Amino acid sequence: MIALDPKSLRRFEFVSADYDPATGVAALCYRFDQGPDLVERITFPNAPAVHPGREQALASALQLLHLIVGVSYYKAAVPESIVIHGAGVDAPRAAMLEELYLHGLGEFAHQNQLDLRGRIHFPAASAASAPAAHLGLRNRNLVPVGGGKDSLVTLEALRELGQDNLAVQVGSSPLIANVIAESGLPGLMIGRELSPHLFALNRAGAYNGHIPVTAINSVILVVAALIYDCSAIVFSNERSASSANLVKDGFAVNHQWSKSLRFEQLLRQEIARTIATDLNYFSALRALSELAVTQRFAKLDRYFASFSSCNRNFRILGDRPTQRWCGECPKCHFVFLGLAPFLSKTKLLGIFGQNLLDRADLATAFDGLLEVNAQFKPFECVGEGRESRAAMAELTQRAEWREDAIVKRFAQHIAPELDSAELALAPLLAAEGDHFVPAALAKILHAA
Fold this sequence. Notes:
Layout: E1 11-20, E2 25-32, E3 38-43, H1 55-69, H2 71-74, E4 81-84, H3 91-104, H4 106-111, E5 141-144, H5 149-161, E6 165-170, H6 174-183, E7 187-193, H7 196-203, H8 213-228, E8 232-235, E9 246-248, E10 251-253, H9 261-274, E11 280-283, H10 290-297, H11 330-339, H12 345-352, H13 363-370, H14 385-395, H15 405-414, H16 439-445
Parallel strand pairs: 1-4, 5-6, 5-8, 6-7, 8-11
Antiparallel strand pairs: 1-2, 2-3, 3-7, 9-10
């Protein structure tokens, strides 16, 4: 038991990061100024020996892993003092971490009524980091799979290119494992075991809330790419992820900040600067809206019986493998709405087992997705309000949907107050904006 007040903690220490090549286990140790060491373990199964000449790259990646994973523990008390043991970080890495912690904890800070601006300071060493080298990595993609539609669109596009792909999941979710098995691609399951002391801190009254989990998974895969000899890490974050949920006191709060273009840019720069010049990190779907991704997924019916985007299925203390869609969370609502313009009603009801657009009790929930009636976009990985409004407007023109409670309400009470020119679906389905997608892959994914 931890018998201390988490809010009395004043210092957070990054103690050590060790990787054992014999077991494939990375042990990451943290400490507050009071209480026990907090050790997280990440297991890379059947890890081969690290190639000679890649030791420096692995050390740099392991340090970055240690520092980014630490956000899970730092948030328990958000103390003003940060101490890094051993080799320090140079100014560019410290600046990257400060931006990640500030914006990646934006939702957490908002919900805990904290202002972290000016509070997070990573001490920077005077010496610059050793520059990255060309490692001669194998031409192979690490493709993270979360069980939902986005990563499956990416997997199938990469398959069409005929590239060598390894589908990877962080954690042991059977739902994700089933989807990877359905893809027929080789799979990799990386284990992540958080310190049990973190949960004791939570029970003792620690600050708790959302963390930038995509940033954590990204840097886990950076280490994995070096261990398993892969030259690319291909995420599936769409352009909608860069859109903030709300702006408060001049600060943009974005639930998906670590899925945003900005984080992608930061991590790409740090990889190329200090880890490996031939390790590519990018999002295949960056130029697409959520609706554009959904349009493409609607053609992949082989996954309709196995995929799930419902976040209530994926819990830190265990998944719920028997129920793929809860029908109550914003992710369920958005995916249902997003698929409706592209699937027959019969197929969509077959996936969800119920018609979410004919439930009058969900009116306020859908207002959040639409960003109307003083509601803001919910803190979930959902598309922009304009996407939901365009999808709903499209359904008002479809005989099979227009009489359903939520659609009918939109047509009668919401649409008349909106600019009809902004409700068009087609413009949202086109690829646009900055991205780092290789040309051959972009040619497949950006085609309408």
